[in-house]
Structure formats: C-alpha cells, structure tokens
Amino acid sequence: MMMKTEKLRVGSLLWASFSVCAGCWSASGMLSVARAQDAKLPVAAPALERVTTAVVSRNVYSAGGTVRPSAPVEGDFFGVGGRVIVDQPVKGDATLAGGSVDVRAPVGDDLRAAGGDVSVESSVGGELHAAGGSITLTPAAQVAQGATLYGGSVVVDGKVAGALKASAQKIVLNGEVGGDARLLAEQIELGPRARIAGALSYAVATELKKAEGATIGGTVTRDERRDAKADRERHKEMRFEGPGWIGSLFAFLGLLACAAVFLLVFPVFSAQAQESVGTSPWLSLAVGFGTLLGVPVLAVLLFITLLGIPLGIAVFALYPVLLLVGYVVGVLFIARRAQAALRPGVPESFALRIGFFAPALLLVMLLSRLPFVGALVLFLVTVAGIGACVLELYRRRQSPQVRATPAA
Length: 408
Fold this sequence. Notes:
Shape: elongated
Order of helices and strands: HEEEEEEEEEEEEEEEEEEEHHHHHHH
Number of strands: 19
Strand content: 25-35%
Mean pLDDT: 77
Largest sheet: 13 strands, mixed
Radius of gyration: 27 Å
Low-confidence stretches: 1-50, 226-243, 402-408
Number of domains: 2
C-alpha cells in the first residue's frame, strides 16, 4: 500500500539524483566557481582529476571529480563533485552535493548535503539537512540542533540534540534524539539503543518495530491515514480548495500589474512584439524555444571562464525576467486578437489594451490548470512571447531607425 510518505520520498530521491548528475558533470570539468578575491587555501586533488577551487573571503568553493579540503576552512565550504569528502574542520556552514558525501570532520554550523550516499560521522554545530539514496549518521555523529532527513533509507546511530524529522522507505533509529521525532516510512525500526526524549509521531505501512531497551520520553502517536486513494483526494483538496484561490488571485493581480508597467514603459515595443507572434507564429515559436534552452547553456559556458562569472550571474538573474516578459507578450497577443474581433477599427489606448489583457490573462490561467493541456498552453504562450521579443530586438538592431508607432 502506498503512503503519503511515498511522495516525499520520490521528491527527495529526485533531489539526490540531481546531485549525482551535478557531481558527474563537475567531474568532467564542466563546472566552475566564483572568482577568488583573497588568499587561496590549497585543496589537494589527484593529478588526473580536474578540480576547481576558489576562495571568496574565508569561504571555500570547490568542484571536481573528488573534492576534499586539504586544510581547515575558516568560513563556509561549498563542494560539488563525484565524491565529496570533508576530513578537515569547517568553522561555518557546509553545503555539499555529489555521488557520495562523507563528512568525517566537525562542521561548526549548519550542514546541508545531497547525494547518492550521505554519511555523517562527526559533530555538526547547527542543523543537519540531508537528502539522498541512503543517509547514515554513524555512532560518532552528533548534531547540536535539529535534523531533517529525506532518503531511500535512513539510519541514525548517532545523536541529534534537537528534533528529528525523517522521511524514507526505511528508517532505522538506534541513537539518541533530544527532542521530538517525526518519522514517515514504509518500515520503521527502533533499535535497543534508541532514545527519544520527546514525543514520537510516526506513519508506517506495517507495524513499528521496537527493540527491547528502546525508550520514548513523550507520547507516541501513529498516523493511520495510509490509504493511497484518500491521500490523492486530500492532495487535490489542498491544491484546489482552501486558500488556493487567494494565491491565484494574487498571481492574477501581480501579472496584471506587470503587464500594465510593460505597456506604459514600452508601448511601442510591446505592440510590435505581439504583432510578430501573429505575422510569424512558427518562427516565434522556434526562436523562443531556442532562446529558452540556449540562455541557461550560455550562462553555464560563461561560468567556465572565471572572467565570465559576473556576466553568467547576470544572465541567470535575467532569465526569470525573460520568462515573465515572454508570458506577458504571449497573453497580449491573445488580447490583441480578441480586441480585433470584438472592437475592430477602434484606436488603441492603454485602457483598451489592459482591458482586453485582463480577460485574456484570466482565460490562460484557467486553461493552465487543465491536465496536460494546461501545461501545453502555458508553454506555447510563453515560448511564442519570448520568440517575438527576440525577433523584435533583432529587427531593431538591424534597422537604424526603430518604428516609432505601434501597429494599428
């Protein structure tokens, strides 16, 4: 029987899979990091592996096949690789992602780790957040605050001073938890050395296995809601009922405000861009699709060279703006067609354009909620708008004189 925890586990495994891919990618030398501004801390790496390391202030950024600091890190440590090993103390936070992640030295503050296999066998001064195929806290692991763990299997043999939240297919707790424990899994086992100072709340498909000697200081509560169909119905209710309409209303008003600003600041460009969708629809879709895929690739290529990192950061920062503008232009095209059909020959004005934009936006937002069709509509509207903007920018660059008036 499938549980609600299965959804959480799938999400956590996707995160772990992404981390593994990131590690493999960096192992081939396709990942780079921020430019060094202060003195570098040496990082040891095998001669045949490509490892990139930089220091910004006291923080260390490293990526490669096998990543490990060769000296204590005074600030934060960021490591991405096929294998990430932390065997030198880190005074600040540690953020790690790789095919395998091994933390063998103390981390002074928070630890965030994602990978195929995540192992912690040292002290963590702050909170622990981990996701992976398997997560292990050895008997030597000590977490000063709370721990949040998502994985295929979770084994806690160490000590968590604060609250423990874990979601996995199988959870084995044979260590100490200083606060409450919230466990969601298909199998849960409490070993003979398990100590939970607070309350235990759990959801499990089978029965909770509690070995002799395991102690729980607070109340024990079991979540009996394990029916998969009921879980799906509750998920639908959370998505379509309750406060969901409030978020949709704010999204509608926010997009309406963005369109109003766009029309006021760029009246000519907005009119000519939406005209491009009608005159060259297939070209707009092709250019938009290419831009949608090409911009992230361009940003990554800029990151490969240290000198291009600032420009790469700017490209990444402008990418959401590009998506927003493309969406607005796509909806403006729909509004323009509706205006031409219902009010032909009427001179355009800001009030008229925003007046037709509002129902067109509402229509697109409603269609976007339909299964499959909604995603396709949203994709086509956004991609066509992006392509139209790129085509209009290209025409303006090719022509020394920009058309000064919007098309009728």
